[in-house]
Amino acid sequence: MPLKETDVPVVPVVPVVPVVPVASVTPVTPVAQVLQVAGHGAIRAEPADNGTTLLKPYSVGEFAFYRCLFKGSEETQGAHIPPHIQELQSFVPSFFGLREEVEASVFQANTPLCAEHLQEPELESQSPTHAPKRPKVGDSALVERSDEIQWMRRFERIRRQLQELASAEQVDFGEDDSKHKTSEQARPSSRLYLCMENLMLPFERPCALDIKLGTQQYEPTSSVAKSSKHLQKAMRTTSASLGFRLSGMAGYDTHLQRSFVRRKNAHRSLEQSEIVAELLLFFHDGTQVRVNVLAAVVDAVSRIYDRFVRDQALLLIYSGSLLIAFDGEEASKHDTAPSVTVRLIDFVHSLPSFGQRDQSLMFGMEGLLKALRDALVQADDHHEYIARTMHENDAEV
Ligand SMILES: O=P(O)(O)O[C@@H]1[C@@H](OP(=O)(O)O)[C@H](OP(=O)(O)O)[C@H](O)[C@H](OP(=O)(O)O)[C@H]1OP(=O)(O)O
Ligand SMILES: Nc1ncnc2c1ncn2[C@@H]1O[C@H](COP(=O)(O)OP(=O)(O)O)[C@@H](O)[C@H]1O
C-alpha cells in the first residue's frame, strides 16, 4: 500500500542547473577522488567542491530519468509526483544537474547547447487525446493512477526529445561511448556530465560493492546482437539463476590496513554456490565479518524492496545496480550503530513501464535479500574461502 505523503522522508530537490561551460576554469588542487568499483564510464569527482559532486558521463536515458525524478518546480506546476517515485527519491543519489566541459582550444562562447534545448513541454500543451482528465477529488486511487500515467508520459516525452536532439546532431552530447568510437573525428570537443551526490563522501575508508540487478540487462528495443550478448552473459553469470550478479567491490582489511578489490570481470565468473561467501568477504574486516554492518544493509535493502520495488509499475530498470557502501575505518567500533549507504544507481537503461511490473528487478531484489540473509546466518562460516580470496588481487589495489 502506498505510504502517506507525511511518511516520505524529505530529500533535497535540487533544480536542474543551467549548463555551464567550464573551459576557462583552472582546476583546483588536490583533485578529489572517487571510488569506482564497476561501470565502463570514467566517473570522477568535481574538484571544485572537495568531491561532494560526482560527475558521470552523460546519457540520454539517465538524464531523462533524473530530470523526471527530481524536479523542483513540480508542485508549482500542479503536477504530482506519484508516491512510488517520491519513495524512489530517497533511494538514489541526489541529482544536481548538468555540466558541460569544453576543450579550451575549441570552446566558443556561442556553445550550441543551452538549457532551453532541454525544456520540458508543458503537460497542457498535449493534445486532448494524450492528456488524461484528472479524476474528481475523493477518488484517491484514480487520482494516484492519473498522476502515475502523467509521470510516465512525461518521462517518455523527455527521453524522446533528448534522443531527437542528440540524433539531430545539433549538439554533440559526448556520450561516454569511447569503447565504441571508430575514428578520431568522432571525438567530441565538449563533454556533458551528470552531476550527482558522491555517495562515498561520508566515508573515511569507503568500502563499496556494486550489484547488477535483474535477469535482463538490455532494453526491449535493443538490437539482436546486443540482446543476445546480454542474454548469454546473464546465462553465464548468476544474473539468470539468482536475478543479480556481483559486479565489482572494494573492501578493507583493518588488520593489514589495506584494501582488497575484485573487478567486475572476476565477479562474473562466480558460481551460485560462492555468492554468500563472496558477500561475507565484502563485509569482512580482516579479523571478522562485520555482522552489524551486514544487518544494517539487510534492513536497508528490505526497505527499498518494500517501499519501491515490490509494488511499483512505473519503471523498468534494465542494467541498474545496487551500490552498498560503508566505512572500513569504523571496524573497531563494532558495538556502535554503523552507518551504511545503500542506493539504486545507473539508470542509463530505465524506461517508463506503463503498468508492467518489473519482474526482472523484483526477482533480483528477492534473490539478493535471500543471499544477504543467508550470509547473516552463515557469518561464522566460509573462513577458508575468505582467507584464500581476500588478498588474491592485491596487485590491482
Ligand atoms: O562490453 P561489456 O561486456 O563490458 O558490457 C557492458 C556492460 O558491462 P557488464 O555487463 O557490467 O560487464 C555495461 O554495464 P556496466 O556499465 O558495467 O554496468 C553496459 O551494460 C554496457 O552497455 P551500454 O554501453 O551501457 O549500452 C555493456 O556494453 P555492450 O557490450 O552491451 O555495448
Ligand atoms: N553517486 C555515486 N556515488 C559514488 N560512487 C558512485 C556513484 N555512482 C556510481 N558510482 C561508482 O561508479 C561505478 C559505476 O557506476 P554506474 O552508474 O553503474 O556507471 P556505468 O553506467 O558506467 O555502469 C559504481 O559501481 C560506483 O563504484
UniProtKB/TrEMBL annotation:
It catalyses: 1D-myo-inositol 1,4,5-trisphosphate + 2 ATP = 1D-myo-inositol 1,3,4,5,6-pentakisphosphate + 2 ADP + 2 H(+); 1D-myo-inositol 1,3,4,6-tetrakisphosphate + ATP = 1D-myo-inositol 1,3,4,5,6-pentakisphosphate + ADP + H(+). Its EC number is 2.7.-.-. One of its GO terms (biological process) is inositol phosphate biosynthetic process. It comes from the Eukaryota. Transmembrane segments: none annotated. Pfam families: IPK. SUPFAM superfamilies: SAICAR synthase-like. Keywords: ATP-binding, Kinase, Nucleotide-binding, Transferase. It is an enzyme of class 2 (transferase). GO terms for molecular function: ATP binding; inositol-1,3,4,6-tetrakisphosphate 5-kinase activity; inositol-1,4,5-trisphosphate 3-kinase activity. Residues 120-140 are annotated as: Disordered. InterPro entries: IPK, IPK_sf. GO terms for cellular component: cytoplasm; nucleus. PANTHER family: INOSITOL POLYPHOSPHATE KINASE, INOSITOL POLYPHOSPHATE MULTIKINASE. Belongs to the inositol phosphokinase (IPK) family. This is Kinase. It comes from Porphyridium purpureum.
